[in-house]
Prior knowledge:
Largest sheet: none
Number of strands: 0
Order of helices and strands: HHHHHHHHHHHH
Oligomer: single chain
Distance between the termini: 60 Å
Radius of gyration: 21 Å
Helix content: over 70%
Shape: globular
Strand content: under 5%
Amino acid sequence: xxxxxxxxxxxxxxxxxxxxxxxxxxxxxxxxxxxxxxxxxxxxxxxxxxxxxxxxxxxxxxxxxxxxxxxxxxxxxxxxxxxxxxxxxxxxxxxxxxxxxxxxxxxxxxxxxxxxxxxxxxxxxxxxxxxxxxxxxxxxxxxxxxxxxxxxxxxxxxxxxxxxxxxxxxxxxxxxxxxxxxxxxxxxxxxxxxxxxxxxxxxxxxxxxxxxxxxxxxxxxxxxxxxxxxxxxxxxxxxxxxxxxxxxxxxxxxxxxxxxxxxxxxxxxxxxxxxxxxxxxxxxxxxxxxxxxxxxxxxxxxxxxxxxxxxxxxxxxxxxxxxxxxxxxxxxxxxxxxxxxxxxxxxxxxxxxxxxxxxxxxxxxxxxxxxxxxxxxxxxxxxxxxxxxxxxxxxxxxxxxxxxxxxxxxxxxxxxxxxxxxxxxxxxxxxxxxxxx
Length: 437
């Protein structure tokens, strides 16, 4: 008599690290993307400080507010996503990057392209903007190929892979909408302004970055907390609802006659996706050996709260006037409150973790992640980040350049603290390698 098979136990987050050192890129590859993201983050707050007078009267066209926004989205969020996905997905999927030298080469195209694009937006130089956009798009296409090859070779991890392919589809829409906006600004429209802007926002914030943030959480949180990986079937269900929300939201700006019901349906699906995602996060924490992630965990929790606030603001914006404060609060909550807060919390854990893995190569006593971390700088950064977001929200609601300038100053201080953490981390990694050598 054959006994029934025992149910398969969920893997622990630490199992992702088995043999991980053989799948690491050279340290200079991911850290150059994270370094660029750190500098762009500081530049965004400094630019807000310098151009606060231009913000109250801005209504979405070219100018320094748009440039500042793209320093965050392209410069900080997307650069970090490139570095994290090309390094951490291979670790989790046990598949090395196919062409490890290519990401290093792409950095030399992507980072100068972002800088040129941002300068073109701020100065309304369409030729600079178009050249920068061409460089960024050219760099992102090979990145998408590398990410796709890794997803194709992945075994298991159905939920993470589903989120990854959803992010890939959103990246395609992001690049198409970016090209449409550039064509619009150069006088050769492919889509009308509202359609191109709406598709660009959804594809970038909720599609590519949002789906990556959800999917990679099922790898990173078990790894950080030493908890169990969530059930794959539940990951797939949560991912399917999130994909539905993004698809509905992406269709809305392209179907003007049905825009309102599509946006309402997208909001309902988005709220359901967030609830399902948070249930999976709660399951990870319930099984965790290390439940308190400190300041990093609080920033990640603040990010989820920012997403909830963005959904509420979007619901208000559905019935409010086109220029109501709800629209600005939605963009602020989604980009800075959710994605930036969550990313900064994750980076506080990823960067020391990756540095310690690189330091461990060839060493008998490698430094621990905590030994590489400047904790005080991260504490100051978290306080300044939260205060800057509150001041920015108040400044936008009141159309107050004074409050916006103070927000820029406080945000710059926080970004300097984060940059100090990153610089000290790299220096301690260098000293560790030199001391062992």
